Amino acid sequence: MARNVYGLDLGTYEIKIYDKKTDEIRREKDVIAMKDKRYIFSAGDEAYEMYEKAPDNIQVVFPMKNGVIAHFDDMQYLLESLLKKEHQFARSEYLVAVPTDVTEVEKRAFYDLVFHSAAKAKSVKIVERGIADAVGFGADIWKEKGMMIANFGGGTTEISVLSNGGMVLNRLIKIGGEHFDLAVLNQVRHHRDFLIGRLTAERLRREFGVFDQATDASLTVSGRDLVHGVPQEKSISIGLVRAAMKEPLEECVEAIRSMFDRTPPDVRRGIEDNGIYLTGGLANLRGLSTYLKESTGLAVTVASNPELCAVRGLKKIILNKEFKKLMYSMLDEDYRWLR
Ligand SMILES: Nc1ncnc2c1ncn2[C@@H]1O[C@H](COP(=O)(O)OP(=O)(O)OP(=O)(O)O)[C@@H](O)[C@H]1O
């Protein structure tokens, strides 16, 4: 008998784990800190705390890149160290949310990560992340004729069109929170000759958001003056931060529009009625829903705690037999049903 069942949403920014036994959702930053490029120094939130503050011999590494596993061994270590905090995680069953628009090799890596880890999984099942999101949102996925889910995450934006419990269209764009942060960082460097860290850039975009009436706000942040090479504090205006986010935002809107245009007419009608459902942590960005509404002409609804929507869906799928057919094993012969 399996000891426990876990739901895993392995994000570029944060890992979310649902534990059936305790009925809890845990989240931890998807980061490890290495010492002298050889030893693991710390993992998860503790490692993230060291980002941009660590001494030279400590390297802070993000094992996921653009929604897929970039450093397999580091990711495996991180997952194991998170699961070890649980009791008796060996011989458990796992349900993993995986982006749809990735290669088979990338998809397989999610499976191998769990199956061949010290977790000694009893079984590993996969569910498309867009579907987990829809279930987490509370949609009646079997009956809905047309739904569009846009998951704005830390490293990617995944757009899914669903109908009657199946995926009709899906696209993973390599634009997420970290790209917005880099855009802000570069904008501040070019226009103010001032170098800020990525975490400061994240703070600026979280503070200002992308859309509301405010035009004269500013925030004083620390960085390095590039003309004199000294640490300084400077006031950064809302206009500069929002100008930086314009380009990545427009790319996301363009992807939503083109997917909507490619959607079959019957499914489209459903989307016109329901609007777009926003999930993923970046959906918390102030003004994003208004911006998308204005630029696409569709209604927009943001999930509550949108970053947890997919893992909430995993929980429902694990607990509820009616969702059983949404999961599949990569060992099943028909696992390529989406292609
Ligand atoms: N209140 C907020 N305002 C703005 N951005 C936010 C807020 N809360 C979280 N975020 C952003 O959400 C992103 C993380 O979202 P999420 O946890 O869904 O990503 P992920 O699942 O790890 O990444 P991905 O889905 O791309 O693999 C980060 O970039 C973070 O800055």
UniProtKB/TrEMBL annotation:
One of its GO terms (molecular function) is ATP binding. Forms membrane-associated dynamic filaments that are essential for cell shape determination. Acts by regulating cell wall synthesis and cell elongation, and thus cell shape. A feedback loop between cell geometry and MreB localization may maintain elongated cell shape by targeting cell wall growth to regions of negative cell wall curvature. It comes from the Bacteria. It is found in: Cytoplasm. The lineage of its organism: Bacteria, Bacillati, Bacillota, Clostridia, Lachnospirales. Its main location: cytoplasm. Keywords: ATP-binding, Cell shape, Cytoplasm, Nucleotide-binding. One of its GO terms (biological process) is cell morphogenesis. Coiled coil: none annotated. The keyword Ligase does not apply. GO terms for cellular component: cytoplasm. The gene is mreB. Forms polymers. Belongs to the FtsA/MreB family. ATP binds at G154, G155, T156. This is Cell shape-determining protein MreB.
